[in-house]
Write a structure and sequence with these properties.
The complex is a heterodimer of chains A (325) and B (249). Chain A contains eight helices and 16 strands. Chain A is an alpha/beta fold. Classes of the chains: A alpha/beta (325), B alpha/beta (249).
Chain lengths: 325, 249
């Protein structure tokens, strides 16, 4: 049997989000390195044109299966489903994109398959025998090489560590029926609140973030304007969330969210090591701060030393001008 | 209802992480050890729940898998209000090993609810809670931003990409919590510290369980290239650099 690389391709209802296409591209490169093909397991009813996107990114076969029944997402059912697909195709690797669903499903599935599990994976394996892969540890403060000792390996690919690469292949779309009956969910959903309109922080390509230098919750308009002009998500440092100036969901750092956008603009953030831990995987960091001694400047690629309340409105105007050109 | 909170012991979040000369282990010299911040939130929430009249919570225990030098941190968990503690005398190499040791304890002393933090600030596996649930055959819930227990009924708020939902879960289950679930962590009082000494800390010998993964080498991040300063009166230059040099706009 040819070695296969199985990916769990989660469709968000509208599209396969960028991390899934990054995952498909990574899986293709891994399959090339280890000698095999890429199979994707997809739940629900995505459009054919969406499924073809996976084929353009190196997926040779797609197994489509209904969403497991139940009042809401149940990780037990998904773990059983993906494990069943892995067994059916004799997968050597089962790969997930880094998101909350993967982190709820992959560890359970790894236990079912008696497979070694590594999350936060950055890049292709250093060796394939013994299988050794790089991952981040200590919340971005260091990296480690992890060896996986089992024949089947479960990996969660870290965000923004692999580019989306088009590798068109012939792609076969089939229906998949799991060989086991999926466990029935054993909980009730009593209330649902839809969240709309906002850009999710962890998915954002550009993030504008405010720290204590913003001085008060009332001053956030200048940040919101800049974020609006850039199409960016808003974030903040821990003191800002602790003071209640901004909701805790916006806190990035070692004890908040860990993010990896293309562009991170830190405004009035000194750059405590705990904060750096949450943003160090950003591709480009811009720091705007009036204190020339702030540690954030050691991590930034570009910086402005100056008064936020003058710099930010000017920057917003400059961005608007660029975008209108 | 009996609650078990899993705590991992990690370097203080201000620690500059360094490794031994061979780069194959953490250099523990001078490190202050703390309860993993998310596990501390889990413990804080468990204590808050019990203080609420009618919760039905009769016992809160903590469990840690680690060597004897972690006991001061376990003592702190007892000092802030946990009733009893377990320490499994083992240094686990991966998440599965840790989860297997906890599962063994839970099989012997039945708990109704196990709470863990969603990540650990050392090796960031984010897996122990889910693996434990699978080993026990229990349901598990993650991305949980609110947890309450009234009359032994467990109510959770779960956040996903697009919605938040209120769930009523059945015991036994594992709940993995994220930030926002509890107020500030508690600071042990002198009385708490005194009573902690008389609380039960059970030493458990590990069961045999081979890790499936292990770390072979560590690396500190490469230093970033030097920062380029832009004049605050010429912000358009920054926009220009971001578009044409960094290609991020």
């Amino acid at each position: 049997m040819i070695m296969s690389v199985l990916i769990y391709a989660h469709h968000d209802g509208e599209k396969f989000p960028k991390p899934v296409l990054e995952l498909a591209s990574y899986a293709y490169a891994l399959a090339r390195q280890t000698g095999g093909t890429v199979i994707a397991i997809v739940t629900g009813n995505p459009r054919e044109s969406d499924l073809e996107k996976l084929g353009q990114h190196g997926v040779s076969k797609i197994w489509v299966t209904p969403e497991p029944a139940g009042p809401s997402f149940d990780n037990r059912a998904y773990a059983a489903l993906v494990a069943s697909a892995a067994e059916a195709c004799g997968a050597s690797f089962v790969l997930f994109a880094d998101n909350a669903i993967s982190r709820a499903v992959a560890p359970r599935m790894a236990v079912r398959l008696k497979a070694g599990y590594v999350s936060g994976v950055a890049g292709l394996p250093l060796h394939t025998d013994p299988f050794t892969v790089k991952r981040s540890v200590f919340t971005g403060k260091a990296s480690a090489y992890a060896e996986i000792l089992t024949p089947v390996k479960v990996l969660i690919l870290a965000r923004n560590t692999w580019q989306t690469i088009e590798n068109p292949v012939t792609c076969l779309i089939e229906k998949f029926t799991p060989a086991v009956s999926l466990p029935a969910p054993d909980f009730e959903v009593v209330k649902v609140m839809e969240q709309t309109g906002t850009i999710r922080l962890q998915d954002a390509e550009v993030v504008v973030s405010g720290g204590r230098g913003m001085k008060s919750a009332d001053n956030w308009k200048v940040l919101e304007d800049l974020a609006g002009a850039l199409g960016a998500a808003l974030a903040c440092s821990r003191p800002v969330a602790d003071e209640g100036w901004r909701p805790h969901q916006e806190h990035v750092g070692q004890t908040g969210k860990v993010i990896a956008p293309n562009l991170y603009i830190a405004c009035g953030i000194s750059g405590a090591i705990q904060h750096i831990g949450g943003i160090s995987s950003s591709r480009v960091i811009v720091a705007i701060n009036k204190d020339p001694e702030a540690p954030i400047f050691q991590f930034a690629r570009y910086a402005i030393i100056g008064d936020l309340f003058q710099v930010l409105p000017a920057l917003t105007q400059a961005v608007k001008k660029l975008k209108s050109e | 209802m009996k609650i078990l909170v899993c705590i991992s012991v990690v370097p203080d979040t201000t620690t500059h992480i360094r490794f031994t000369d061979k780069m194959d282990a953490l250099d523990t010299n001078g490190i202050q050890w703390i309860i993993n911040p998310w596990d501390e939130l889990a413990l804080t929430r468990a204590l808050e729940i019990r203080e609420h009249p009618g919760s039905g919570v009769t016992q809160i225990s903590v469990i840690h898998i680690g060597m004897k030098d972690t006991e001061p941190v376990i003592q702190k968990a007892l000092a802030v209000g946990a009733d009893s503690a377990y320490r499994v005398n083992h240094a686990p190499a991966d998440s599965l090993e840790a989860a297997s040791q906890i599962a063994e304890v839970v099989r012997k002393e039945p708990f109704d609810l196990v709470i863990t933090g969603h990540d650990s600030a050392d090796y960031n596996g984010s897996a122990v809670g889910e693996m434990l649930a699978e080993l026990l055959g229990w349901a598990s819930f993650s991305s949980i931003s609110s947890l309450s227990v009234v009359d032994s009924v467990i109510t959770l708020e779960r956040e996903s990409d697009i919605r938040s939902e209120t769930i009523i879960a059945k015991a036994p289950c594992v709940v993995t919590i994220q930030k926002g679930i509890a107020k500030d962590p508690r600071i042990p009082s002198l009385r708490g510290i005194m009573t902690a000494r008389s609380k039960q800390l059970t030493l458990v010998e590990p069961v045999k369980c081979a890790p499936l993964t292990h770390f072979v080498r560590f690396e500190n991040p490469a230093p970033r290239s030097q920062c380029r300063m832009v004049d605050p009166s010429h912000v358009e230059e920054l926009v220009n650099l971001l578009r044409n040099e960094a290609n991020v706009l």
